[in-house]
Amino acid sequence: MKKASRSKKAHDLKVGDVYQDCDYHPVRCTELDGDDISGISLLDKSGRNCSVKHCGARKMTKDEVEKAVAAWKKGGEKELMRLNGWKNNDIQKFYRNWRLLQ
Q1: How far is Cα 71 from Cα 76, in angstroms, rounded to an integer?
Q2: How wide is the angle at C-alpha 52 spanned by C-alphas 51 and 57, nearest 5°?
Q3: Using CA atoms, how far apart are residues 6 and 65, in angstroms rounded to an integer?
Q4: How far apart are CA 13 and CA 87, in angstroms?
Q5: Structure pTM?
Q6: pLDDT tens-digit profile of 40-75?
Q7: Which residues, 6 or more positions from 16, have their beta carbon under 8 angstroms from its beta carbon?
Q8: Which of these CATH numbers, 3.30.1330, 1.20.1730, 1.20.144, 2.30.30, describes 10-98?
Q9: Which of 60, 31, 25 is nearest to 44 (CA)?
Q10: Where are the domains positioned within the chain?
């Protein structure tokens, strides 16, 4: 599967596109304001905000969105991390340092 490239410019994305935010959520873009991009997560319907430049928001393909939704249903955030190349050891370190252990 070929991933869509990371966007460094807001004009690469437009309202209505689905982009991947820095938490790996596929997000339907509802607003672009300069470098700021906002939308609704297709996973949990939460409002999402990112920086196109600093968070590396990127347009997603339909295939990538489907895989992200399947990963979320299978194992939530941790499964999304695995889908995006994280190893189990790195996920455990991240949770230990940045998230409350569940």
Answers
A1: 7
A2: 105
A3: 15
A4: 30
A5: 0.83
A6: 999 999 999 999 888 889 999 999 999 999 999 999
A7: 28, 29
A8: 2.30.30
A9: 25
A10: 10-98
